[in-house]
Amino acid sequence: MNDKNISTFLEQVRLPAIMLHRPYPPTRFPETNSYLGGLPALPPGFGWPRADDGTPLHFLAQIDCADLPLMESLMPKNGVFFFFALIDEEMSWAGGGDSQRDKTRILFAPVAGHEPATQPFDLPAIQGGHSNRDRYQKVEGDKQFIAYPRWPIVAYEVGAWPDESALDDVPFGYQDAVNRARCAEAVRATGLPTETGLRPRWGKSDYHPKNGLPFDGKSKFPQSWSMIDRVSRYLANWARNCIEKEAARKPEEKAYHFNDLSQLAKIRDDSLDWVAAGSEADWERRPDEERAKRFHVWLSELGKYEDSQVQSAVGVALKFGMSSAIKHAASSSKAARLIPAQFYADSQFEHLPTYQRRDITSGVWSIGGEYHQMLANAGSSQEARGFERDDVLMLKLVSDSGVDFMFCDCGEIEFWISKRDLAEQRFESAWAATCGA
Fold it and tell me: At 49, is the secondary structure helix, strand, or coil?
């Protein structure tokens, strides 16, 4: 089938949808009542939802219908949605029917509350305590990660197409054409490119002193306490893990790379001292010049350490630490203004809704869009639901490192409701399913 016939087929199966986009950088957030993560603004009388066994569910998103584009659909024109799910390690919601409703919930209210709800005291750790945030940021004495970073979202009307697996018969090259069409819609709606061409030279796992620390041409790193805290947390965890591995070594096994564990213990202790200093500091103000200089010198000296593993750890600490500092900035406008514009530009590729990828083996480029969506047909990392259905996609959330979303193995969550229940606003009948890559 030629390109013209593919275009005709795409038009036949195209449906209007809503793209939910995280604007970037955090210094340019629009006024909106819709967001991912954080805490829900539940109105009075709305309790925090729980599974049948009493376990509290995790809050994922708040979407105000007033923030959505005006378009023909069964969606209410006013009111606020709150989406919850139990994000444990397994995320086993299989079985259909009530078993898929037990661990997920959609609440709907005429208006949002005036204050964020209080988290239940027994809210479990996200991913059973195995999230990247727990793995790389948690230090002794910290509570486990139970809530996602808050990030506002804006909604755009876009075209949507079903995956090849949702259709019985498609022309050759259909899925590639769909991927490109989704990408084009995201670019059209947001005005963002598919690739910035920028990468932070300080965010490399193969760190080397010549890469240097983050520098925007005007001021030296660190410009905020969030940077100090997040980088230090990674290094403290890395050093602790190295020490624990050596302690667990059997006598007949080869010694771990480090012969002098006192060096690692000092890196761990110094890192924890910086974390402790950050806990007493005002994160909405720059660190004083003297302490910022001391941290800069300390990290620079680690980066020049004679051991290549320490150098590499500093590079990865900068990568994870700066990414986490930007997430913190999303919930604090004052903290967001402390991060230099160049650092935001260097890291924008992590927040683009589209992608370009080149296969290392074949050299072939792929292009597409992976974004949060409401209505129509969304891409799936597994077998997609059939095109002709009597239900509506209320929300699809993809794994999104910008807000620490990780569903199954880089998969997604889909909330569904029947057309009849949606028309009658019976959202207690909605259900959800997970898809893993």
Answer: coil
